[in-house]
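Re: the multi-chain job from yesterday

Posting the exact lines I submitted so nobody has to dig through the queue logs.
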Amino acid sequence: MIDYRAFYAGRPVMITGGLGFIGSNLARLLVDLGADVMLVDSLIPDYGGSLENIRGIEDRVRVNVADIRQQTTMNYLVQGREVIFNLAGQVSHIDSMRDPYTDLEINCRSQMTVLEACRRNNPGVKVVFAGTRQIYGKPDYLPVDENHLVRPTDVNGINKAAGEQYHLVYNNVFGVRGCSLRLTNCYGPRQLVKHNRQGFIGWFIRRIVEDQEIEIFGDGMQMRDFVFVDDACDAFLRAGASDACNGQAVNVGGLEPIKHKDLVELMIEVANTGRRRYVEWPAEKKAIDIGSFYADSTRFRELTGWEPTTTLREGLTRTIAFYREHLQRYL
Amino acid sequence: MIDYRAFYAGRPVMITGGLGFIGSNLARLLVDLGADVMLVDSLIPDYGGSLENIRGIEDRVRVNVADIRQQTTMNYLVQGREVIFNLAGQVSHIDSMRDPYTDLEINCRSQMTVLEACRRNNPGVKVVFAGTRQIYGKPDYLPVDENHLVRPTDVNGINKAAGEQYHLVYNNVFGVRGCSLRLTNCYGPRQLVKHNRQGFIGWFIRRIVEDQEIEIFGDGMQMRDFVFVDDACDAFLRAGASDACNGQAVNVGGLEPIKHKDLVELMIEVANTGRRRYVEWPAEKKAIDIGSFYADSTRFRELTGWEPTTTLREGLTRTIAFYREHLQRYL
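And the result, structure tokens for all chains:
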């Protein structure tokens, strides 16, 4: 197995969604590895991208504000890049049901834009797509592996699945090497905490840091796995440096699944602030909820040697410490 | 089980792609059942829609030339319809790889247009979507049932899968009743024979009727199942009249699978014209070929009582007779 970290020294890479949560954390790792890092981000308000996220590395990355939906722009920007971490996306499930077209444009059509740009202007590039476990929908069995049917429960999941599949077809048919990492719930510093439409964990962390009350929907017995952002970024680095995953979509899950209620208790314990209350499920959220979910990442581990190493307690401690220091900049 | 044929007497229905191959055959059945039939078709050249297809029933249907990509148009047209047979699509796999955006617009985005029109203007409607077995890709096992992974080998398959999934999500979340019929290779009178970019069977029938040579790619040993268009239309009628399939995507396969080479021999035998030659696979087609495929339709049979009844010999005989009489109108 190659030294995937050394691979990036001097390497021209691009991160779409590079000012977002995972993208900016990945950028930090890549500049430390000596990569030539270009961040492409549309900075659409509410989506999570922010110049705050690259505070301290501004001088070591090139920021290009652009929308990946723009074909001519992407045709230009992809040129000369050797690895593209394709993380730009609309993340909110609720928004996708209110405004399905915008979700389609960003999560589905724009992926074709990126890939067509590569096919026509940089066919030798490697593209690593940020997929999501959301596409599986309500699981038939646990843990969920890649043999599980893809059966999204919302428009966001459908569009993310299509965006992922374009990458695999462009790999198989056009030789634009690509793979997809189906990420489980990811958390850590720089995640969006401004509103609660991008999953609950960022919102919960904010409320706890503010010493406010959290609402747990239902009985809180559903289980989930969580991956700390540094572990997720390590998965991207490995996938980008290796051809082992080309043409595949693989799960990137967390260490141990945990009950929703236990996660909240752990957060409150780690923070020593905040409190929780049990409430009924809001109808809009219940309609697209998938119950318990956790992923089996065996395939990706075997292909790349990846292992998540950050325990939930440690990850939450670091995340809460980050927002204790920086919350005002993220509101 | 309700009398699904009686269900349509006086019933206002719409067929998108209604001047196309399956759409127009379905229209013929529906007018005979006394339905109030509106056909919506964009009449895009090369896609298969033609006024020839409704010759003899012109006075018993309402034709509205429109493109399902047009939201405001669809908002109006769906009103008052009780069943929509949603068959409009771009069918060519090869075209989808040459011009992926058009395929996306027609097979993916436009399905959202139809469904948003229903959600906002006619939420009580039932929508039956024409899915395709193409979305399964290269099978892991045969016959392929609905538990098989969806793993398209081309852009067309990805977009058709997304279009299908929108129907299921709109059923589950918004209550716009919908289901998808994953059709296997369909053949019969009124199928496109003008060019060879929409699958091989129409093209072969034309060549045989013209007493020309057919090219079989490779050794012709791959197996496929075929459904005669009247049997496919019977599946649509059953799905439209029943709520048994709501929220589901089900296979609609043929009677018996047959080797490609044996199919050609049967065609030539039935027609008593034409001849065949074995050639190498063209690279562009090989890249998206899926090898042997045939479907298991048990689920749909159990849900609706549907059975295909037309043997391949009988169906080919009727199809060849049709084109012997009408070929000039289809060139």
